[in-house]
Specification:
The complex is a heterodimer of chains A (110) and B (184). Chain A is built from 3 helices and 6 strands; from the N terminus they run βαββαβββα. Chain A has helices at 25-46, 69-77, 98-104; strands spanning 10-18, 51-56, 59-65, 81-82, 85-86, 88-95. The two termini of chain A are 27 Å apart. Chain B is built from 7 helices and 8 strands, in the order βββββαβαβααβααα. In chain B, the strands form 2 sheets. Chain B has a 6-stranded parallel beta sheet, sandwiched between helices. In chain B, strands 1-2 form a two-stranded parallel ribbon. In chain B, α2 (87-95) links the parallel β6 (78-80) and β7 (99-103). The two termini of chain B are 29 Å apart. Classes of the chains: A alpha+beta (110), B alpha/beta (184). The A-B interface holds A 18-19, 38, 69-71, 73-74, 76-78, 80, 86, 88, 90-94, 104 and B 1, 3, 104, 107-108, 111-112, 145-150, 152-153, 155-157, 159-160.
Chain lengths: 110, 184
Amino acid sequence: MTKKTQREKRRYILFELVCEETFKREEIVTGIWNSCLEFLGELGASRTSLWVHEYENKKGIVSCNTRSVDEIIMCLSLVHEIENRKAHIQVKGVSGTIKGLGRCYNGFCR
Amino acid sequence: MQRKYLAIDLKGYPSDLFEDVCQVVRVEDFSRSGGLQGVEVTAPFQLRSIPKGIDVVFARGGSIQKNRKFLNSKKIDVLSRPYPFDSLCARYAADNRVAVELCFREIAATTRYVRARVLTYLQKTVTLAKKYHAPLVLTSGSTCEEEVVSPRQLVAFGKILGLDYSEAKASVYTIPKKVLEGFE
């Protein structure tokens, strides 16, 4: 097991998709990763530890390390289309735990 | 970091996320209606035709000469699209209390090479504005409901451009409030 001090601290970002159509989780993941690769490049994206955790009912959670929260929020904001269909992402909040996101933004409960 | 941000969007589409949103139109298309209203001038001769009682006057920059003319006119509140921006412009902006706008839409509406160039210019603008203490405002520039960005996204945009967390927060609320009050 990794020592606590060596473990990377993470932040969880709650987002909401603003679109008329419905998307599968895989399509969302591709859209977010494409935006990150476009904005940050391959090296920059590799340094963010980006992970898309879950997505349902147009709401989802991504996580990243504490250094790159703002970069990931920018990448999410710059998503304009997913699979050639119009879609925008609005960031709802940032927290240190997934439980914290659910507590503060009660629209999202696990 | 706070959970909810107090914010004023000086150029955007009305939304619950912001305390106040100012809708900006071109000076030729202006017609009086409710809420905060602003006009944008694109050339120095249009400064004479600014209607009275406007909350915010924006001037769209373009060249160094144009930017300096706008910054010295004392009729404008905010210089939008400030690049090319040099040290003299920054000094004028600080002395005449004209805020420099950093608009999110300029990044969102461009891609690849153009986006990289715009980011470079904006980062340079931020460096100069910080050195000469020129006021900076972060705006969304949204024109429809889908384009609305949250205050947290604007703060992230400010941090990407080189502002500190506290400076980015001030550019979202404190400075826009001062602009609306006329820096009294």
